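#structure-requests
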Amino acid sequence: MELKDIGNTPLVELATFFENGNRIISKCEFLNPSGSHKDRTYLNIVNRLEEARIIAPGMTLIDCSTGNGGAALAWIGRLKGYRIKIFMPEGMTQERKAQIRLYGAEIVETPKELFLSGSVLQAKAYVSENSSNDVYYVDQCNCLLNKDGWRICGEEMVEQLRAQDVVPDFFVCAIGTGGTFSGIAEVMKREYAKIKTIGLEVDRSAPLFSQRNNLPFNHHSHNLMGLGAGVISANTDPNLVDEIRVVDGTGAWSRMKHFIESEKLPIGPTCGANLLACDELVRTLKNKNIVTLFFDSAWKYESRWDGLYPEYSEVNHVAGRDL
């Protein structure tokens, strides 16, 4: 695989969704070289930073990730000649940690009690202690080049939809860093005046949903890694989110497994979150075209196939508070 293999992923219609004349079409980002949509994120960030002469091969790039982003940056960094250091909360899947190390990157596991915020604190401390020009904190959550890269994906989707003679009525996408949702939604709203965008958050860590509904926000541990970091990042543009919904992590895992059995596409649990929202739409609507995204691959979760992260249940019990 080469860098040119990132992107141009297929847009496929899901055969099992034909209730009430609705059609579900998904962009298969799990087919990117490292197995997730994060390849697209980091390729754009690294390329643009190189063009601006902010980074250059030989430097050390660091970032925080629960796994997919770390693997993508590690793979791209290896091909481009960077040293990579990933700060990651304890308890992530063995598959994703092994993949990051296979690509030659170093992992710094941070205490589970603070989840991703702890990784961010340690990454920033590392940069402060190594403040030479040879270390750069990529910061995927707050670097707006993240969102910029997803405009490219949005343009791909528009072209593919036109080729299939499809005008989308809805765009459904779970929100992690927000770059994927916001970049695609911006293009979709430009091209399709009547489209409705639906953003999703995991119910146990839903800051935008809480804000929209005037609810107190509390970050709880959950099992949809990649979502629910507990913040609304700079890449999440709330003005592009027509409706925000929450999904249950256990339900998303179950939906993913059922889908793999029926459609034979090996997708990950956050894809199951998107499918749950699509299920709700097809039950209540008629003759609509719904576009969504498949973020990553099932093989990245084999060691957690029961959908449980017991380390975080222990943290809640021992610490006596919610994460």
